[in-house]
Amino acid sequence: MLPPLITGRKSHCDSKLITYHELSVLVSGGIPSGWKVVASSRYARVCKREVGISVFFKLFLPRTPLEGIKAIFRGSRSRRFVQGTEALLKAGFLAPRVLCWDESFVMAMMGRGWVLTEAIDGRGVLDSWRKLFPANDVKDIRRFVDEVAIQVSALHNAAIAHGDLRLNNMLVAFEDKNIKLFFIDNERSRKHSRLPFKERVKNLVQMNRDALNEIPIRYRAYFFARYCRYCSLSIGERRRLIEAVEARTRHVLGRAC
Ligand SMILES: Nc1ncnc2c1ncn2[C@@H]1O[C@H](COP(=O)(O)OP(=O)(O)OP(=O)(O)O)[C@@H](O)[C@H]1O
Ligand SMILES: [Mg+2]
Q1: Residue 65 pLDDT class (50, 70, 90 cuts)
Q2: Is domain 123-256 classified as CATH 3.40.50.2000?
Q3: Number of Cβ within a 10 Å radius of residue 39
Q4: CA–centroid distance, residue 98 to ligand 2 (Å)
Q5: Measured in angstroms, how far is the CA atom of residue 142 from the centroid of ligand 1?
Q6: Which of 20, 66, 78, 204 could form a disulfide with 113 if both were Cys (CB 3.0 to 4.6 A apart)?
Q7: Which residues surround ligand 2, an ion (CB under 5 A)?
């Protein structure tokens, strides 16, 4: 029998995807052989298996001491991650599939949990940008920016707000000439009946924070123009939106300094 700290139900995990040994090492903060640690925020530990089936393991660490209490009312971080991912997939967006996850009550009460997801062969939008720019020609760069605008506007047109739309929470996979965009970190993503203005602003600010120092103004402006067009925003709405995004970005960056 599995100790309760490791997994709620063993049946959730196919041993071909992850062995009990790997799981127990990962849950206790170690690295099994064949795995490597990937850079992540301090509230998570992300590891990737490099031999056999390529998968990502994400261990959630409590963001606040109240994480356990929050789990009682809103579900554990792993449960929210699964629900957020499912909502996106159901609406037709791309996201790495969750292969198995932790459901243990004890872990949830400690503000912890984990998910195992399929690995996407790609890199984040910001990392892809660093590779693409300035080596590629303007046409390729604009196509890339346009694809991001298409996906983000489609998400918002579907009344879905992403919980943390940092640029590297969108993974870019190049397939021949096509660009595929996968949304990750879907723990706080949510479908609304109508997308609140505040949520639209929040997502654009999350993107803008990363973009400000790295992406030249002409491409940021191009993204914004395409995004507004795909969202069918009027001139007045565009103006109101850009003002709100600028003010909020300034506020958030000021607070971060
Ligand atoms: N399924 C996946 N396929 C490919 N790469 C992934 C996958 N999951 C995570 N990654 C990579 O690992 C990085 C960190 O993972 P993730 O974004 O889930 O954690 P985080 O943002 O640091 O955590 P937090 O939820 O606390 O903000 C990602 O930026 C991405 O490069
Ligand atoms: Mg992330």
Answers
A1: confident
A2: no
A3: 6
A4: 15
A5: 25
A6: 78
A7: 169, 185
Which residue in the block uniquely carries the two structure tokens 């203005």?
197
What are the strands of the beta sheet with 178-183, ordered from one edge? 123-124, 170-175, 178-183
How far apart are alpha carbons 206 and 201 in whole angstroms?
9
Nearest ligand 1 atom, CA 63: 26
Tell me the mean pLDDT in the region 52-63: 92
Work out which ligand 1 atom sits closest to the CA atom of 43. Answer: 26
CA-closest residue to ligand 1 atom 27? 41
Domain 10-118, second-level architecture = 2-Layer Sandwich (3.30)
Nearest CA to ligand 1 atom 11: 38
Q: The whole model's pTM is what?
A: 0.91
The pairing of beta strand 170-175 with beta strand 178-183: antiparallel
Residue spans of the domains in the chain: they are 10-118, 123-256
pLDDT at 21 over 70: yes
